[in-house]
Protein 1
Amino acid sequence: MRQVAYKVIRQVTAEDGYANLVLNKALRDQRLGGRDAAFCTELVHGTLRWQGTYDAILARSVSRPLTDLDPELLDLLRLGAHQLLRMRVDSYAAVNEMVTLTRSEVGQSRSGLVNAVLRKVSQKSFDQWITTVAPHSDDDLFGYLSIAKAHPRWIVEAFADALQTDGYELDDLLDADNEPPRVTLVARPGLAEVDDLVEAGATRARWSPYAAVLQGGGDPGRISAVSSGRAGVQDEGSQLVATALATAPLEGTDAKWLDLCAGPGGKSALLAAIGSQRDALLTAVEPLPHRAELVRANLRAVPGDHRVLVGDGTKPTWPEGSYDRVLADVPCSGLGALRRRPEARWRRTAKDVEELRPLQERLLDSAITSVRKGGVVAYVTCTPHPMETRAVVDTVLAQRGDAVLEDARPLFPGVPSLDGGPDVQLWPHLHGTDAMYLALIRRT
């Protein structure tokens, strides 16, 4: 299992692979299930999630700069450090297994270094190492949290800005970000009921009327409603923002809905299922053909003549004001879903946020242009970064003058801690969801 985990980590770090996709394929190919699959998953996700922290610890345990180590060797050391510091693995067994793995993967000559470094790492607990390698929190809180909670400093600072705090709530958010997420299912209305998912072993979720949580993980594909497309895997936060758009008050016609940035199609499927119960049809737009195919696959079980278009949402091919409801779930940094993508925090940079901002503004402007007078737009991101959320909305509305921001909080009944509005920010540490953001905009 360690060898499988190591090969997955190498694909992620050396080939920019996505951990969830590479790992799932490896587990299938090796026919690993149950405890073996869970152990392998923790090896991979934990090593990738805590990479920055382990690098700080290894830098104190290696006699040369980490940049001088071969990448293969560094990944082996990170994998060993995770077993020693964050898993219930006997230290002697962890070191010996990693030395054996080193011999088979990079050669006998490197095994002595791995043995020496990991034995040094094993001499302190995780908390003791944090005290050793992180700055004191009173002197540099963000620097301390960056090491202690395994988040790049710029992300810690962005979260503090979004929360408007640098206190215990920031600490809670970073802790929640490091917890493996639950597998949440959505029962697409008119096709499946939450009771169907409960009978298959899930439990009802807290906020979304369509959500259930698959207890103990497991393969959701074994549930017939999921394998048939009547249900799907979807974070509860994603369900809530799509449902908010569908339930926003609307006068006049309500027959044409648009998902402007549809891929891979989870929100499209939920909107289409809700719309089908009201004789509303959804048009889903996705610029990449392979992602458009994923949207079609998600819509396959939903009744109605819903359309999937391959096209650029910033360049509408339909007349202005064609739609009654529009979802603009724009490309973003994805900082709200770091718990699902353990490698993402080390790949993203502050520059990514800057580079995405013009596209986000163009897509929101296009969404407002696409909706009719009196219609509603949901601007959605899976990030709490202020420059990708309210700043984008404020900029676009200031330029247009024909749309207003409305209070979205009543569209989240029963959901606590939504702060002052009018937009809504969900949080992993408060709501157990991804950090989804929604601004509800009505064209005037």
Protein 2
Amino acid sequence: MTKLKLSGVSKAYGATLALRRGDLELETGEVHVLIGANGSGKSTLCKIVAGSVRPDAGEVLLDGQAVTVSGPRAAQALGIGIFYQELSLADHRSVAENICLPDLPRKNGFFVDHEALLEKAGRYIALFETVAGAELNAETTVGDLRADQRQLVEIMKALATEAPILIFDEPTSALDRAQVDRFFEILRDLKEDGRSIVFISHRMDEIFAIGNRVTVIRDGETVGTEAIADTSPEAVIRMMVGEQETLASPRAAPPSHEASSNVALAVESLTGAGFRDVSFAVRRGEILGLGGLHGQGQSALLKALFGAPPARAGQVVLNGQPLRTESPRAAIAQGIAYVSGDRGRDGIISGRPILENVTPIHALRNRLVLARPGPLSEKALPALKALNTKFAGLSHSIGSLSGGNQQKIVIARWLIDKPDILLLDDPTKGIDLSAKADLFALIRRLAEEGLAILLYSSEDAELLNNADRILVFNGGAVSRELSGAERTRYNLYQAAYEAA
């Protein structure tokens, strides 16, 4: 019996179409896996079901009746609970308060019933008592927990809704094997009780261990649904890839992989927060891509190379000399540049003029104590022109620019005094197609001029179209290197989705 049905659901954010056509049928008493590449629209589809995103078009049927999920409270009233990929816990509150937050037990209609709170939370904590750790108890402050324990609390919070429909958006990403096994036992019990579960995961072994059916979303559209028993990991990846398997050919004259004298940066057994035992070399004139699903260690590696924070173990050699990455200041002094896709947090200086935003690295590297706007402007303008940056004047606020032009400012600041290594951490995130084209045209030109570039992108096409080689990350480690004819969408997905 169909419990939930979505037909032709779509959602756009301005010119960005997050979901073109989302279709999903969820049966009573099944675990229905939803799978797709980064940015395919699967999380948007789930947020529409949970009421945190309003669709632009389409129909949602619950038990055969058309419904409007106007918000999270409406979803809760309709019997829909969700585990969000981005944890939504209150760090300064207790485990019990977080678990029961959607529906705190009260007495006298106003005050929280502390005894009932502990009793209710205790039931869900007990489900994981063999794998959660002794320090995870009802009174523990969530901010004091490890990442895996926090994720377990978020799962308990979703379970505590007692909703007939439960959505889990990558719930196992921070869990160990024993915790995953226990969680799957609970899901099987819920399925036996007639609950309906949507499960998003990037691990093929998990998908085939827990799912009854799988629906694939590609480029914002539902492309098919198969029974798990009637398909295979290879067939699922083929559905994700579609007809266009290969998106790009290598650049006409990529640097030789044999010339050791051409190596700009060599990394050996580097380990840090979020990644482990990573080794590679990048050559002058080469664009080395970092691929795989979001959050598999790519950004953490780039930040470690920039000293924010530094790696815990391993060796890095820059131009034949050991690289000291104890801080970003030290990395900059040695010729390392880092561009973040999160320009609001890691890039722009809010409220300040464009000139101040484009010249701080130049001032730091040249130890400028006093700087005059005229000479600084002469230094900044060629870098801004190289990126086709559109601005009224250097004295205007950075906030007067579009997102794409703000990101161009962030990149231009590194081009005034060219670095030896350019680290690009999802640099085109949230900018329009025109700005992306300008950025990648410059990146390729810089590579042709001999700059060594490490590029992480959450968009597979950007890697396949621009990188000479791709290191695919899975579970914090490199699972495969793709070069030449191996640089296909199928190989990229297979390496990203295989069991960690």
Protein 3
Amino acid sequence: MADKPEEPERGALAPTDEELTLTPSETLRIAVDLPPAPPREVPADEAAVAIDDVPVDPGFVASPTEPTTTSVAIVASRLATGPTPTTETSGTTPAQPAAADVPPPAARDGVSRRDRLRGETSPQPESAAMLTADRLLEVNRKTRPGPEGTWQRFVYNTTFHGVNLGDSAKVRARKELDHRIQKQFEGGARFVPVLTRKGGVGKTTVTTLLGMALASAREDRIVAIDANPDRGTLSERVPKQTRATVRDVVHKAASIGGFTDFSALVSRDETRLDILASDTDPLLSEAFDENDYNVVADLAARFYSIVLTDCGTGIVHSVMRATLQRADEIVIVSGGSVDEARLASETLTWLEANGYGELVSNAVVALNTATQGTNLVKLEEIESHFRSRVREIVRIPYDPQLAAGSVVSWKNLKPLTQLSARTLAALVVEGLPAERD
């Protein structure tokens, strides 16, 4: 065999066919230096794609009799404007879009406050409750209200409204509590029964305080219904303006066409709380059953945002089932004695055993400290017990006006009593659903 010719140097010209003769078993190698290719620029309207790395086993070769398929997800880059493209084969599930491509909740549900300031409109119809003063009024020297507080007001007037130090800490706390009570609702009335197994613990008093605190802070209508199967005393806590009772509402239900007709059957106090009295005749009060309550509740739901129900003594009377079926939240009233606290706890046990566990976990306990034996009992231990079963607990302090058992004047209550009632109202409102079908 002839000697193998030497390979030409890199960059040298290769010999021609006449000068080079190779046998079939010999190999010719030629090295050529080429300039690097310029990178290709992707047009702006062309979406780039990224293919996830798929591990490949070089020693594995698919059998012709057992074909296999592999699905590779192709995710469009941020330049893409259409839906996420995917490449899939049989037996696989579509690839999920990347988390970065999912629009934020504000973009899906509507526009944010910043978007509204830019003039953008919401894709969903807005309710009238969204037209608030905070949204519509531009805060400046003219529209900003004057401060509340002795020193703050003095500085404000002395400087001819030039220096506004803002409200005092006490006023800010009051306005914050007002804001919590003024939570807006959509989708019908909210029902809040006030109940306990024992009488004489101040359940009617708590219903009155809760209703007054709600009515004094909110702009919508609040009504308290006396559903006591015995003779209730709820109507005696406000100045009586009518002798009508729940029985009259049942009889006149077909003729009640608007709020004017219904308002003629209730009594209203200085806070705008409406009270619907119970029957005063014991013979008639026994006839007030769950069907009658449903009639009254249906009418009240047409005209009021929050309906309080004074359920009377006990929890097994005929009206209780209809009351609990409509309840969005419950308030349990407990006294400060051992017996009263135990019966209030047994009320929670009865509710849990009868399928109202969700109401129990969301309940608020009003601990009336004006009952007998309160000074001899460790109230902290009672609160610790109820805190393990319900959502919140509020103490109702002793007040001479409440102890008299007569008409209650909201403005004449002690500041601590008003604060307790407003705290109870805020906790109750926070436990109610804001929206409902």
Protein 4
Amino acid sequence: MRSRPLTRLLTAALCAVGMLGVAGLSACTEAPASTSTKVTLGFSAWPGWFPWQVAQEQGLFAKNGVEVELKYFDSYTDSLNALSTGAIDANSQTLNDTLASVSGGAKQTIVLVNDNSTGNDKIIAREGVTSVADLKGKKVAVEQGAVDHYLLLLALKEANLTEKDIQLVPMLTDAAAAAFVGGQVDAVAAFAPFTTTALTRPGSRAIATSAEFPGAIPDHLVVKADLVKDRPQVVQGLVNTWFATQKWIKDNKDAAIGIMAKRGAVTPDDYKSYDAGTTIFTRQQNLDAFTPGTTPQHLNHQARLIVDFITGTGLAKEKPSLDSLFNDQFVKAVPE
């Protein structure tokens, strides 16, 4: 059993014999764990996270015992920073971006796998650029340090290239897609729904996608580590809501697509085209992913690969600790 710090032991002993006096009485009373059900949840433009909008509009958070301020970020990077600085309690983000945050000292815990990207992250190039190898010397726009920068580096490595072989143009993802359409760059690495924008450029095509790197981009519900410790009932409510939302979407598909397409600022038909590129995880797929293993479906294995990659390429300076990063207790507690 882990022992309590000496100062806490001494305080407990003095409280027991009444030696702290009036000024020390507050030290004799343990602060009760918070029972507040209010939480701020961040999300941004990704098909695997738009179900949170459905949850809000259908009152599913309240039905699962949590009061949620759902905060939409136009910039994915801003959502990462908000969780890292404690401005929000939970966020929707990828494994590699979570690892990058943890390597910088953030205390975060992954409690749910929303989905795997199976094609909705793409490297899209102009006419005449038909492969990743053709990117050598070309201008490529990408949100530096975020998920599609990681995809770009993976694709370059597979083509025996490095970032030094291209002209990297760092931009937020929405601006990067717009710059590509405007002819300012030769290629863009982006995620849906911004891929829809990028592909409006005549002659453009995807030359690599996340489907070619199975398991490399899992998307998660990530919470502040203190939230797990201090208000586990809130975390459970969020996880329960996620699975309740998936059931509602299954039973009300057209209505759900309408809600999610509106949030993504795309047409329902465009949104339907994202289905194959985002694989929403079931409860069992969650449990399988959280189970330690040595294949791409196992989060611990994928995390080790990502850590080696992001440190080796300079996306992170320090190797983050994987201790307590993954917590499957809430998925396990979801009613089957």
